[in-house]
Structures are given as C-alpha cells and as structure tokens.
Write a structure and sequence with these properties.
The complex is a heterodimer of chains A (217) and B (504). Chain A is mostly helical and 217 residues long. Chain A is built from 8 helices and no strands. The chains are: A mainly alpha (217), B mainly alpha (504). The interface between A and B is large, with 42 and 52 residues.
Chain lengths: 217, 504
C-alpha cells in the first residue's frame, strides 16, 4: 500500500514533469493536453490532502480544479485556436533541447538550494514546497522562451499552477474567499486571453509575438 | 445592511444597464454621467460623516469585516470618485462624438460603459478591502476589466498593447499572490487563525510576532508583483502602450487612479513588514531605488517623444517614481506622497481629457501633425497649459507642495541622492515643456523639417463639457495646493499617513 504522502509526492512530481514537457513540445494540441494533465495531478494532490486531513474545503478545491483547469480552460483555448485557424506548430526563441537543459539546470539548482529557504525551515512538507516552486519557475521559463501567444498563455497558467500547489502545501486553510477569487480570476483571465489571441491571429495572421513589436520608443 | 455598501450601488446599476442589449447609446451615456456624479456625492458624504476626519479604523463592515473604511480608504475613494464623475461627464462628449463619426457602434458603446463601471467597482473594492484575498482579487479585476478597453479600437497597436498589459500585469499580480500567501503562512505560523491570517486589521494588530525572514521574502514578491501594476521601472514596459491606446477618458482613469490603488496596496503591506522587522529602512530602500529608476528613465525618454499620449503615459511612470522616492525618505515622506498622489490624479486626468479632445478633432497622437493649438484650439490649449504647469509643480499646485517637502526632507537625509533627483527633475521639466510648447505654439520645435498639419478640424472649437471638467480640475488643484499648506490640511494628511506608518 502506498502511503498518502507518497501519492502527494508522485502527483506533484508528475505535475512538474508535465510542465517540463510543455517546454519541449512544439505541438499545439499536446501542450494543451500536457497542461490539462498537470492540472489533473494538482487536483489529485488536493484530493489526497482532503482525504488525509478530512477537510471538506480541499475536496471542493480538487473538484473546482478539475472543472476549471482540466476542463474549462483547455476547452476555451482550443476553441479559440480552432476558430482563428492558428498553426499547429508553436514558436520558440530558444530551441527545445536547449530550453529543457536550462530548465533542468534550474530545477536541480532549486533543489540544491532548498535548505536555505526560510519558509522551508518552518514548513511541514518540504518536498511539496520545492516541487511547487519548481513548477512556478518552469512556467516563468515557458513565458520567457516562447514566442507565440498560446504558449505564453500556458506559461502563465503553469505559473498559476505552481502558486496553487504552493498554497496547498503551506497553508492548510486558504480562505474560501481567496480561493474563489483565484478561480474566478483564472477563468476570466483565460477567457480574455483566448479572445485576445483570436484578435492577434485575425489582425496579424500569425500567433507569433514577433509581430507584436510595433510599440517602442 | 451596512450603509457603506451604498458606495457600490450606482456602479453596479451602471454595469447592469450597460449589459442590457438594445439600451439606447445616448441614454446609457447620460445615465452613466449621473451614476458617476452620484457615486462622488455618496463617497463625499461617507467620508465627511465618518472616516476622513477621524483617527484609526472607523468601521469594519460586511460579512465578517471583509471591508473597512479608514481615512486612507476615504482618501483613495475620494480620488477615485472625483475622477469617476469627471470621466463619465467627459465620456458623454467623447463617446458621443466617436459614435457620430462611426468609430464606435452601439455595441462598442455598451462595452465601454460596462467595462468602465466594472473597473470603477473593482477600484472601489480595492480601496475598502480589509481581507487580503478581496484586495488581491480587486486588483486582478482592475486588469481584467480594462484589457478589452485597451484593445478597444481593435487596431494592431491596441491589440499588442492589450496583450502585453494582460500578460505582464497578470503575471505581476500572480507574483503578488505568492507574497500574500507568504504573509498568510507567516501569520498561521505565528498562531493566527486562518480567518485572521488574511485580515489586514488583524495582521496589523499582531504584525510584531510575524517571522521577519518570511515577511522579507513576502515583501520582495509583493513589491515586484504589485510594483508591475504601479509601473515602476523596469517593470513599466506595458504602461506607456496601454495608457496611450485606450480611449482618452479611460487613459485618464488608468493613469489617475488605478496606479494609486496599486501603490497604496504596497504601502499597506510595507507597514506590516516594517512592524515585523521593527524598522522601516529595509523596505524604504526598495522604494528609493525603484523610485529613482522610474524618475530617471522617463526624464530621458521625454526628450525624444513625438506622441502626446505616450508623453502623458511616461509622465505617470515618472510621478509614481516621485511618490516612491517620498516613501523611500522615511515615514515623514508619506505626507508629501499623499499630496503628490492627489495632485497627480487631478492634473494628469485633466491633461488626458485635453489630449482626447485633440485626438477627436485631429485624429492623430503625433505632435508634429498638429496645428499650432494655441491658435486653433485656444480653450483646450489654455487649460492644457494650466494643468501641465500644475503637473510640473509650479507654485499653487499640490505638486509644488509635495516636491518642496520632498527636497526639504531629502536635503537633510541624503544630499547626493537629492541632488541627482533634482537634476532628473530639471531634465524632465525641460522635456515636458519642450513637447508642450511644440504642441501649443510651434510643432516644428521638435526638429521636423517641414510642418504640414495633415488634418484640419472640421469645425471651429466650441465650448464643450470637457472644458468645464478641465476647468474644475484646475480650480481643485489650486484649492488643494493652498489647503495642503494650511495647518488643517497638513493635519488631515498626517492622520491618513499614520495609518501606514505607525511603527514610528
């Protein structure tokens, strides 16, 4: 029998792995699937916490995560992509292998430095915090390395996944108000970004953010 | 129901009205103007009867103290609501004209007002939020509600600006969320209940017991994250684009009050961190460094700018920098910072109203394509000049008061930094004045070879509601400039400042 702590670790590890694979993939459909999978693992993590601590609150969070991040957000993004006939191939300014290498260096570097973080000395579940911070930074890298609108959205959403995991790991009782606010902002944000990416595609005929460089001084 | 909730009544009504398909555009514009003025009156009454003239927290209200009213909240509310009334009045003319010219249709008109009212709603919420989660959500809502306004004209530059805006600000606010969570974590570690751990008043009451290590980290994330929204250099890249691409009345709103809401949010957290560290210098360094950067970069950029809306947008970065330097000089600097905030709000928004008037008439934001405005548009140009002088801190302007105090305090505390700061201020003055004179008197001043105004206005300039609003802003600026130098004005601001500087 695997212990709940081990399941937590595996779920977050898979979440990180899926986010790392987002950095490698240049196919539009697979990056959406990878994001949905990473979010699903986050939901599993929340569910295990709920089961372990017996808090109803976490069950609700797990259910909302599945609804919003696994179902709604990927759906709305793929719908917008279909509507605007975006290319299947994504754009990157750093080659995938190089990006992966840099990401791995970062992941290992963070792992090596973890014992110096102030919040880890206080926390109950150090590994969970480490993994959540790593997901956060992988999202940052995605945002920096990628040059197309959709990958940048996924980068932002991955950052948000990292923050959610961080919240689950550090604070057992994030107030429902904040939680609801985060999910609401995420849903509207995704909707808005999907709309904008549609505008970008129709105006510029490409999702490449290189085209978005008219405004400079 | 707590009486303070009246605050939200009219913006909600406005947003609901805009959501109704088929609502007549003209009626929507007029009702929105009434909504703006009514909200200002309510805020004025709430501030007068309770809040602005009293010490400490005045009232916590709504669902377990989620919202509260104190003097600082009243100060912000007053600024937001004055501008709400002004913007909605100016919009009657601005959107009306654009609809006549076929630039916007009825649907766009509804989008403008719907999003505009939601935007105000989120700023009002941010001003009175006592729950950290509500505060965070309100700030994020300001971004979400304005993104479509940045992309309003669906032109290439607008969509580009909106993309940068939503991506950078959302990422910034996400970083801020980490800071918020760290504060919450530090509070639960210190034994606060989950309810208290996210309540600003409760956090403040026990800030002394929060772990300094954690609070330092939290502040770094909060400062960088919410600082992106304030537009501190180097996180400012979205600001000139977004503020220049929105319809001009909304630009006035973005520059005039949204930046203030974000700025005050950082100050509320700064106070908690100062309490926990038992000193203020650690956080002040951030304000000083980012403040100087934010004054320096625009000061140089002004010299080369040819676009008057971008000029005003960059000037907002500069003024946020000035406010940050005020805070960086120590708790005593918070009073001049508040003066500066009030003055900047009134002056900058008035300038954007004038800019909107010219954009409507000449369809260009390029300075060298304008005629000699002092000759063709005397009313707008005269008011623009008065407001520009107020923005550049000539005496009688509240900005004169704030910069005077700033230099006086700075000279005592840190001579080299004050000297560099004054040099930068002179440079900014020269750049802004050069562009202003070029617009008003001689567009060839900016170095263009031949001066050919591409478009002539169809009609001679008439008296518009925009001029009335700009004139009111000038009067308010002079009145405030005087009041801040009186003992009573200074006292009221000191009381507001005390709410975020009580460590000393």
């Amino acid at each position: 029998m695997i212990s709940p702590v081990a399941i937590q670790f595996i779920a977050l590890g898979l979440c990180l792995l899926a986010s790392l694979m987002c950095i490698v993939t240049l196919r539009l459909r697979s990056i959406l699937r990878l994001y949905a999978f990473a979010s699903l693992m986050l939901a599993v993590y929340a569910a295990v916490l709920a089961w372990q601590g017996g808090e109803i609150h976490f069950w609700a969070v797990a259910a909302l995560t599945v609804l919003v991040k696994v179902a709604f957000v990927p759906w709305i993004l793929s719908r917008s992509v279909r509507k605007s006939h975006a290319l299947e191939r994504l754009q990157t300014s750093v080659r995938p292998t190089t990006s992966l290498l840099l990401a791995l260096v970062m992941v290992l570097g963070l792992a090596a430095a973890v014992s110096h973080w102030p919040f880890v000395q206080h926390a109950v579940s150090n590994q969970a915090i480490l993994l959540s911070v790593e997901v956060f930074f992988v999202g940052m890298l995605l945002l920096i390395f990628r040059r197309d609108v959709l990958s940048q959205i996924i980068g932002f959403l991955t950052i948000e996944n990292g923050i959610s995991a961080f919240a689950f790991a550090t604070i057992t009782g994030v107030p429902a108000l904040l939680e609801a606010g985060i999910f609401g902002a995420l849903m509207f944000g995704a909707l808005l970004m999907a709309t904008l990416s549609h505008h970008v595609q129709t105006l510029y005929g490409t999702e490449d953010t290189k085209a978005l460089s008219e405004l400079t001084d | 129901m707590p009486i303070q909730l009246l605050l939200f009544l009219f913006p909600v009504l406005g947003a609901v009205l805009a959501a109704i398909p088929g609502v007549p555009s003209k009626a929507l514009r007029q009702v929105s103007a009434i909504v703006g003025v009514a909200t200002f009156l309510i805020v004025g009454w709430l501030s007068y009867t309770g809040g602005f003239f009293q010490e400490g927290e005045v009232a916590s209200f709504f669902a377990g103290k989620v919202l509260r009213l104190d003097a600082l909240a009243c100060f912000l509310l007053l600024l937001v609501s004055v501008l709400y009334a002004s913007v909605m009045l100016v919009s009657v003319r601005y959107m009306g004209e654009e609809q006549v010219e076929g630039i916007v249709d009825a649907r766009k008109n509804r989008l403008y007002y719907g999003m505009g009212h939601l935007f105000v709603l989120s700023m009002l919420l941010a001003a009175v939020a006592n729950h950290v989660g509500v505060l965070w959500f309100a700030l994020e809502a300001t971004t979400l509600s304005t993104t479509l306004l940045v992309a309003f004209y669906r032109k290439e530059g607008g969509v580009e600006a909106a993309w940068k805006y939503v991506l950078l600000c959302s990422t910034g606010i996400a970083l801020g969320l980490i800071g918020v969570l760290m504060v919450g974590f530090a509070a639960t570690q210190a034994g606060l209940s989950p309810q208290e751990a996210f309540n600003l008043a409760a956090l403040r009451a026990s800030a002394g017991s929060l772990s300094p290590d954690l609070m330092r980290w939290a502040f770094v994330f909060l400062f960088i994250g919410i600082g992106t929204k304030v537009g501190f250099v180097p996180m400012h890249t979205w600001l000139p684009d977004a503020h220049s691409k929105t319809p001009s009345p909304i630009s006035a709103f973005l520059s005039g009050t949204l930046l203030n809401c974000a700025f005050v949010t950082i100050l509320r957290f700064k106070d908690l961190v100062d309490f926990s560290l038992n000193q203020t210098w650690w956080t002040e360094r951030f304000f000083l460094v980012f403040g100087l950067l934010s004054v320096a970069l625009p000061a140089f950029i002004f010299l080369g700018l040819r676009n008057y809306k971008r000029l005003l947008a960059y000037s907002s970065v500069e003024h946020m920098g000035l406010m940050a330097i005020c805070v960086g000089l120590g708790p005593i600097g918070v009073v001049p910072m508040l003066m500066h905030m009030a003055g900047h709000t009134l002056a900058k928004s008035g300038l954007f109203f004038g800019a909107g008037e010219w954009l409507l008439r000449y369809k260009t934001t390029k300075i060298d394509l304008l005629p000699r405005l002092m000759r063709t548009d005397t009313r707008t140009a005269g008011l623009f000049l008065a407001l520009m002088l107020a923005l550049l801190a000539v005496p009688l302007s509240p900005l004169f008061a704030s910069e005077y105090f700033l230099v006086a305090i700075g000279i005592n505390l840190n001579k080299p930094i004050t000297f560099i700061f004054m040099l930068l201020l002179v440079l900014a003055f020269v750049g802004m004045m050069r562009a202003t004179f070029a617009m008003l008197f001689d567009p060839t001043m900016l170095g263009t070879e031949s001066h050919e105004p591409s478009r002539e206005a169809a009609h001679p300039e008439g008296w518009r509601i925009t001029h009335g609003v700009m004139a009111v802003h000038v009067v308010l600026l002079v009145a405030l400039g005087y009041w801040f130098f009186t003992a009573e004005g200074f006292q009221v601001l000191s009381r507001v400042a005390k709410l975020i500087t009580s460590t000393v």
